[in-house]
Design goal:
The chain contains 13 helices and 14 strands. It is α/β, with parallel strands linked by helices. The chain has one domain: Rossmann fold. The chain has a 7-stranded parallel sheet, with helices on both faces.
Length: about 325
């Protein structure tokens, strides 16, 4: 049997499932490494009440890689209306993941069991088996803890790091061993698309994970965001995104960047509906090349529901293209 190329996708938030759904239908072995530092919405409430790893990002990834019929996935994704006071705002999938985490004594085993039940095509690894806290230092010297607090502060972030939510005695955060093995065996490592400071970096800031990515012989591809994010990446160029990643890991580890060059029509966007975004990411190709990046600029834009997103098929086609070029 031919070796299936191994692709590891690292991130969280809403961008990760988009890429995974496209990769699911390719002849590749996909591993999703998912952040466990989310503390907003339904995930945050469950995390506070029953001290489980926040399930929201994991739920969306399970659905993206599942081969179950749509009806079953719709039930898993169903979110109770706010008028249902007891369950208000909770997605059924979040409750199932939380229950299984309690039953199995941890999120990792729970997700592996659910992966079998949901006919997952690939592997889903929470980056750690415990809830993590994201911490940030801002350029004005102040510090904050908690992903939603950091985003809401609307200050320029200087650096982020993660700590264990369970104990604050300075123990280094340990990743799930399978995450490190997957990274070491990868043919391609994909970062993003997703929030730079709150979806991608929380994974890489676990020192063993960052080190494994830096030491990997695989091509590391960063899918640059189309829009800047309020309170996180205001006025960032594509080169600024890469600079932040490289700076956090102490070396130029990003090999290739996918950059959208299709203009976003200004009058199309609904900034109230998509209240996280501020403006299209500006281009600085010289700045990217100065960081030893291969730049692939193309039309990766998909306009949908008055928002600007990545076109899944175009992004996945480019990832497949890189895979074949590297391994020819």
């Amino acid at each position: 049997m031919l070796h299936k190329p191994k692709i590891v996708v690292i991130g969280g938030g809403t961008g990760l499932p988009v890429v995974l759904r496209g990769l699911r239908d390719q002849n590749v072995d996909v591993t999703a490494v998912v952040t466990v530092a989310d503390d907003g919405g339904s995930s945050g409430i469950l995390r506070n009440y029953i001290n489980v790893v926040p399930p929201g990002d994991i739920r969306n990834v399970l659905v993206a890689l599942s081969e179950l019929p749509d009806l079953e996935l719709d039930i898993f994704q169903y979110r109770f209306k706010s008028s249902d006071q007891f369950f208000a705002g909770h997605a059924i999938g979040n409750l199932i993941i939380s229950a299984l985490s309690e039953m199995k004594g941890g999120i990792f085993t729970a997700v592996q069991e659910l992966s079998e039940m949901m006919k997952i095509n690939g592997h889903i690894y929470p980056v750690a088996n415990e809830p993590l806290t994201l911490n940030a230092e801002f350029t004005d010297g102040t510090k904050l803890s908690g992903e939603s607090e950091i985003s809401a502060a609307h200050k320029q972030i200087k650096r982020v790091w993660v700590t264990s939510s369970k104990d604050n005695d300075g123990h280094p955060v340990r990743p799930v061993p399978e995450v490190i093995t997957a990274i070491k065996n990868a043919d391609q490592i994909v970062l993003g698309p997703g929030s730079l400071f709150t979806s991608i970096l929380p994974n890489l800031m676990i020192s063993e994970v960052g080190q494994a990515v830096c030491e990997s012989k695989a091509e590391v591809i960063y899918i640059c965001n189309i829009m800047t994010q309020k309170g996180e990446t205001d006025n960032f160029t594509d080169a600024d995104h890469v600079r932040v990643l490289n700076h956090h890991l102490g070396k130029n580890f990003i090999n290739t960047v996918l950059v959208n060059i299709q203009p976003v029509p200004e009058n199309y966007l609904d900034f109230q509906e998509w209240n996280e975004i501020s403006q299209p990411v500006k281009h600085d190709f010289q700045g990217l090349r100065a960081q030893n990046c291969r730049v692939i600029s193309s039309n990766f834009l998909r306009l949908k529901d008055n928002g600007a997103f990545h076109d899944r098929d175009k992004v996945v086609a480019e990832l497949m293209n890189r895979l074949h070029q590297v391994h020819e």
